[in-house]
Amino acid sequence: MSDEGATPRELVLEACRRNNTSLLSEVLTSLSNPEKIADLLNNAKDGVGNHCLHIAASHGSYDVLDTLLDQENLEVDPLDRLERDTPLHKAVRFINSLAPSDWPSAHSIADLLIDAGADPRIRNKAKLKPVELVDPKNTELRSVLQKAEYSMTVGDDIVVRDGDNDEGPTGSASDSE
Fold first, then answer.
1. Which of 55, 71, 144, 163 could lock 16 by a disulfide, CB 3.0 to 4.6 Å apart?
2. Concatenated DSSP letters of 150-162
């Protein structure tokens, strides 16, 4: 057995549980290579298959989530092993667990994930999207998730018609005489 202490994976997961940005920064700095950091973060899971983003979202660890989501090549929609939840599902579950008076401040966790590209259209094992897990009284969070879902759906439906290409005049109309 080794006397070296906790592994980088264990330290990252602990930082996610405790919203400990100092510990997370220490681990990330020790790796120094963005590819190694991405590999660690994308593969760090706890015993039940929660990735680091799941753990941070489940514990409301906003500052750690913010740091994690700044890392290159981080997968923002990994699925956990048990429920097939994304971190956005976990964030909604966390927000639901709070008193309604605390909901507004906790919405920033869902906003952070959405801004980083989390897909609110992904369904979990129970075939539920994050918006379908929202407490019915939490209309603000429901609205945020619906808008995000709409934006992603509309964004995926951009159609380029024939003739809409880069051939043709460039510059302003004032350039032509």
1. 55
2. HHHHHHHT--PPT
